[in-house]
Every structure is written in C-alpha cells, then in structure tokens.
Amino acid sequence: MPVVYIASRDIGNYKDNTERLKEILTESDIILVESFREATTLFKNLNLNIDKSKLIEFSEHTKKGKDIDDIMIKILNCKIVSLISDCGTPALEDPGRELLEYCYSYNIKVKPIPGVSSVTAAIMCLPFNFREFYYAGLLPRDDRERERKLIELKKLNVPVIVLDTPYRLSKVLNAVKKIYSKNKIVALCMDLTLPTEDIIIDEIGVLCSKYAENKKREFVLVIK
Fold first, then answer.
1. CB atoms within 10 A of CB 101
2. Which domains does the chain have, with CATH numbers?
3. What single string gives the DSSP state of each residue in 35-62?
4. Residues whose CB falls within 8 Å of the CB of residue 212, separated by 6 or more in sequence, listed in order
C-alpha cells in the first residue's frame, strides 16, 4: 500500500525548504503538482534532478470522477507519492483536500511533511491574542458575496485571518473598511519571507489610502 506525503514548501524564499522535503521529492514515484511550471522551478532552485515523467497535475482543473479515479489508480501502483502546491502548505486553499478524501476512502496512509505556512508565519509575528482565532481563508470573488461573508465574520470575537489573490488586495481592504469601520485595527502581512516583506499594523482606513492602487503583492490580512 502506498504512502501519500502532503509536503509543505516555501512561500517565496527557497531557503525555507527542508531537507526532509528534498528527500521525499527525490524518493517519490510520482509527484502531484498544482502547476508544472512552479514545480520545475522549485526543483531547479533546490538542485533536484526530478524526471518530469513523475509529475502529474492536480489542480483546480482536475475534475472529480474520471480524472481523480485515473490518478488514484496510478497512486495505488506506487510506494511513495507526494503532493506539493505552488506555495506553502497543501490542502488549505488548493484542491489537495479532494485528494485526501480519496486517499482515506482507499485506506491509503497519509503523512505530513511540515513546513512553511503563510498563516503561521503571520501569526508568529503579531502581538494579537491568538489563543483562539478564525481562519476564513479565501474570500468570495464576487463583491456582494465578499461583503456578506465579512458581515458574518464581524460577529466573531476572535482575530480573523483572511487570504486572497495578490491582485485583489485593494478590493479586500476596502471591503473590510466598509463592513467593519475605517478605524478597525488590522495587520497586513505582505510578501512574507521575501526581501520585500512588510508587516504593518494600522487602522484599515489608513491602509486603504496607502494601497489605493491595486498593487499585486502576496498578502495575509489579520483582522484584530
């Protein structure tokens, strides 16, 4: 019976990748990747000579049913399989969760390769009380649905962690300002682990003015 490793990778700084990750990738019979381009770039930066024939795409374009069934047949004929995402820890905001459902239905052993996560990277640098917090993940793309989601989140009495794609930074900031208030204290963590990293704690109104232009930066937003 195979073992499927859910393998964390860096969130931008290749030096954060672990030796254990390198070992598992090298030993894997097949590697499920979110995109071939990001995976091959990772291997190149880690000096890993991975045969491209080992790579199988497992992304938002992978359809439930025949696509995943075919992948599961390949997994069952392997000893070691690994799953990596384009960035950070798999199965939070990528299709990896569906793979886990299938693995458990087939009684396939699943093991973690712990590593970097943008969520924990943000938490460890902020002076907020994280004894309890709520991970909201990616907000809805539609403006009205995003606002409805924020109205629900506003009812919580714990820090709320929000992610979104880089090009929606200003939209998310303005939506939070509209639903909460311009004086709401938030932490904006951008480009974590990179030379351009910024961690800013301020009122949401101030951040909206500062980032009025839709600058594309990876970010984690923590609403205090």
1. 11
2. 1-111 (3.40.1010.10), 116-221 (3.30.950.10)
3. -HHHHHHHHHHTT----GGGEEE-STTP
4. 170
The secondary structure of residue 16, as a DSSP letter, is G
The arrangement of strands across the sheet holding 185-190 comes to 134-138, 160-164, 219-223, 185-190, 198-203
pTM above 0.85, yes or no: yes
Q: Which amino acid is at 65?
A: G
Please report, in tens digits, the pLDDT of each residue of the chain (224 residues total). Answer: 899 999 999 999 999 999 999 999 999 999 999 999 999 999 999 999 999 999 999 987 776 667 888 999 999 999 999 999 999 999 887 778 889 999 999 999 999 999 999 999 999 999 999 999 999 999 999 999 999 999 999 999 999 999 999 999 999 999 999 999 999 999 999 999 999 999 999 999 999 999 877 678 899 999 99
- The residues that bridge with 186 in the sheet, in sequence order, are 202, 223
Residue 138 tokens read as 């990616």
Is-contact 81 109, C-beta < 8 A? no
Q: Which residues contact 194 (CB under 8 A, 6 or more apart)?
A: 12, 13
Question: Which residues does 144 contact at the CB level (< 8 Å), separation at least 6?
Answer: none
Task: Give the tokens for residue 137.
Answer: 């993940």
- Could you tell me if 40 and 65 are in contact, meaning their C-beta atoms sit under 8 angstroms apart? no
In DSSP notation, 55-120 reads: EEE-STTPPTTHHHHHHHHHHHT-SEEEEE-SSSSTTSSSTHHHHHHHHHHTT-EEEEE----HHH
